[in-house]
């Protein structure tokens, strides 16, 4: 994302007030558990370890309908998990399916000079993306990297990883891929239903003609405290932000003009102080179909989060850059702008509706949107058939 993308998105919502949430529940597991308790659906919770819980959805008589835990939703398979976790393998699969995605090469950490020479051989002004082969939550990801700043960003990518990722990082292999212009969008699909498309905005500040970027960050963090969700994720001045500003010939001491928006990062991550916009009702049907096709192309996957790159709301050639089997659902629940969604309701009621149509049991739950959930699941299953031969 660049500042033109930022302005394009924010100007579309200039007359829309920011959402404020008094109380929030950001954990995906806790969101499902809270919904099950409030909805009255019979369920059980089993603690597997400190960070993992098995959530079981039960009939009124206490019989098991389905159960799930991180990192897979109901109907998900280990094959799908392993495929999507290997970014390079997943990318090759998407190319075979004829779906727009990135073009990457994999290198060991010591091959920095080889990586730079191979990617910048034709055009010194080309920009690239550097990311670890296996990481999460945007750790180690550096976007829009120039040749001049390549070595520094390569080093920072490693430094950004956790101790666990450094230990089990598949020999610390890194991906270098072409930089796609546009803004990032998270498409969340649960049991074949497209829940929402959320534009993810990196941290930024807006100038007043008086304060420096560093001072504007302090001011903005104060305003973020008025939102129960955003206050959990303040903008922290990190080495990644300093590096991004430096690569754009800026510093924390720069004083932006009045109404001038300045990006602090090109990585769209709410945890880094970003914002979210629900653009589901604004994007074209072509983009929605593309998102459904991407997920359908992964064998054994009916639910997931897709990271897309769009140039506009009617982009004729959307691209996918990553697939997640257990997406963070708080992104759809707490958009900064636009209508919040209820992903836990969609998943739970979809699973129950599928079970009840397949098992003619007495004393069934009433699911108001059962027909819609079933249609979406059946349509999605048919969509998967388009890619079945490629998956083999």
Characterise this structure.
The model has no long low-confidence stretch (mean pLDDT 93). Helices cover 34% and strands 20% of the residues. It folds into 3 domains: 3-24 and 206-269, no CATH class; 36-41 and 70-101 and 181-202 and 274-391, 2-Layer Sandwich (D-amino Acid Aminotransferase, Chain A, domain 1), CATH 3.30.470; 103-179, Dna Ligase, domain 1. The chain is built from 14 helices and 14 strands. The protein has a 5-stranded antiparallel β-sheet with strand order 12-9-8-13-14. It has a 4-stranded antiparallel β-sheet with strand order 4-7-5-6, sandwiched between helices. A 3-stranded antiparallel β-sheet has the order 1-2-3, covered by helices on one side. With 392 residues, the protein is an alpha+beta fold.
Which descriptors apply to this entry?
ATP-grasp; alpha+beta; D-amino Acid Aminotransferase, Chain A, domain 1; 3 domains; 392 residues; 20% strand; Dna Ligase, domain 1
What are the SSEs and their pairings?
Elements: H1 3-12, H2 28-39, E1 43-49, E2 52-58, E3 64-68, H3 78-85, H4 87-96, E4 104-108, H5 112-119, E5 128-132, E6 142-145, H6 150-159, H7 163-167, E7 173-178, E8 183-190, E9 193-201, E10 204-206, H8 213-224, H9 239-247, E11 261-263, E12 275-278, H10 285-296, E13 304-310, E14 319-324, H11 330-333, H12 343-358, H13 370-384, H14 388-391
Antiparallel strand pairs: 1-2, 2-3, 4-7, 5-6, 5-7, 8-9, 8-13, 9-12, 10-11, 13-14
């Amino acid at each position: 994302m660049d500042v033109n993308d930022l302005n394009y998105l924010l100007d579309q919502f200039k007359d829309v007030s920011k959402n404020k949430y008094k109380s929030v529940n950001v954990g995906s597991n806790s969101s499902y558990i809270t919904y099950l308790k409030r909805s009255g659906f019979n369920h059980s919770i089993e603690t597997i370890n400190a960070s993992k819980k098995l959530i079981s959805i039960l009939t009124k008589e206490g019989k098991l309908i389905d159960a799930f835990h991180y990192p897979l939703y109901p109907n998900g398979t280990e094959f799908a998990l392993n495929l999507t976790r290997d970014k390079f393998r997943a990318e090759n699969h998407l190319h075979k399916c004829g779906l727009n995605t990135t073009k990457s090469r994999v290198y060991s950490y010591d091959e920095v000079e080889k990586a730079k020479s191979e990617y910048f051989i034709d055009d010194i002004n080309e920009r690239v993306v550097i990311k670890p082969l296996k990481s999460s939550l945007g750790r180690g990801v550096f976007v829009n990297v120039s040749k001049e700043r390549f070595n520094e960003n390569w080093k920072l990518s490693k430094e950004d990883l956790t101790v666990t990722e450094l230990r089990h990082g598949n020999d610390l292999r890194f991906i270098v891929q072409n930089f796609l212009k546009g803004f990032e969008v998270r498409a969340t699909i649960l049991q074949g239903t497209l829940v929402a498309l959320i534009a993810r905005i990196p941290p930024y500040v807006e100038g007043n003609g008086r304060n420096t970027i560093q001072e504007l960050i302090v001011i903005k963090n104060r305003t973020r405290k008025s939102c129960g969700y955003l206050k959990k994720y303040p903008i922290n001045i990190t080495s990644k932000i300093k590096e991004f500003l430096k690569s754009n010939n800026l510093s924390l001491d720069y004083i932006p003009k009045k109404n001038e928006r300045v990006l602090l990062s090109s990585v769209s991550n709410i945890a880094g102080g970003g914002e979210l916009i629900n653009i589901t009702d604004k994007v074209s049907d072509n983009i929605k179909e593309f998102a459904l096709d991407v997920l359908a192309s992964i064998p054994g996957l009916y639910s997931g989060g897709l990271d897309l790159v769009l140039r506009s709301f009617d982009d004729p050639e959307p691209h996918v850059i990553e697939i997640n089997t257990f997406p963070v659902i708080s992104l759809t629940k707490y958009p900064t702008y636009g209508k919040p969604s209820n992903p836990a309701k969609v998943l739970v009621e979809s699973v129950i509706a599928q079970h009840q149509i397949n098992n003619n049991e007495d004393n069934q739950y009433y699911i108001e949107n059962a027909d819609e959930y079933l249609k979406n699941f059946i349509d999605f299953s048919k969509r998967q058939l388009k890619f079945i031969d490629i998956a083999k």
